[in-house]
Amino acid sequence: MDATNSFATRCRAYDAAALAEAARLVAEGQPIAVATETVYGLAADATNPRAVAAIYAAKGRPSFNPLIVHVASLAAAEALADFDAGARALAEAFWPGPLTLVLPARTGSGIASLVTAGLPTIAIRVPAHRAIQGLIEASGKPLAAPSANASGGISPTRAAHVLMSLEGRIALVLDDGPCPEGLESTIVLTGNTPRLLRPGPISAAAIAAVLGQPLANAVGGIIAPGQLASHYAPAKPLRLDATDAGPDEWLIGFGAVSGDDTLSATGDLTEAAASLFDTLHGADASGKPRIAVAPVPDEGLGAAINDRLARAAH
Fold first, then answer.
1. Contacts with 209 (C-beta within 8 Å, 6 or more apart), sequence order
2. What's the half-sphere exposure (Cβ side, CA atoms, 13 Å) at 107?
3. What one-character DSSP code corresponds to residue 142?
4. CA Rg value for the chain
5. Is the dihedral of CA 33, 35, 39, 44 positive or negative?
6. pTM for the full model?
7. What local confidence, expressed as pLDDT, does residue 232 receive?
8. 17: which residues sit within 8 A by CB, 6+ positions away?
């Protein structure tokens, strides 16, 4: 799916039948909008790279920043991330609820690399709302779920807001009324120096009280991964817009340009977005000292792919 595809978007009130349809769509790799206690989320299977890429396509003007993974319980979160004592104390105090923790990701967790934007950390939350909890249970999957609105738009707190923004871009809105918090979750980076990455419904003071220490950057601007000029970068030099490879280069192809590996042999931008970080990791692990990447059209998801490749080559 990409932003140019058109769906007949359905809006269904939350009940068992609507939940079953939503879970079926998630299993098919489609993102659907669902109520949470914070804002409506655009949820998809966090273990399916194409499903995650479809989130970015539906939102339009995409940016591959890390996505929050929603799971059913602390035990489910511990299967995906390494918890230190502070993180576990915060989880026990505020989960289920509007708190997201940024933690070291566990190797082999099965989470698509596009969810973490290729970073070694994962943003994770146990939501309190029955609709998204029901969808997690019914789908049997951890759900990546940014806000269910077009990129740059106002976050949606009602199903009507989602339809105003994403009508025709997604198949289903699981409507469970207005979001009780109406504000995106608080995000905290734990560790030796805990930091407030995004203010939200749970205050910095409440978090500091649990941790027994103040949060760094508690009153500063939001710190978002992916803002540095050099980011997502492999260890090897990377050359862009390559139509063939030098003798010392591992070529990542796209479309008609074949290579040692390819983002998408058919020129599918959704497939390319889904495979981007895995392909870069593979190139970095190859026996060649340099990497070359074929041209990618600078439109739709291609703009985000080229942004990340430019940062990787910086």
1. none
2. 0
3. -
4. 20
5. negative
6. 0.82
7. 55
8. none
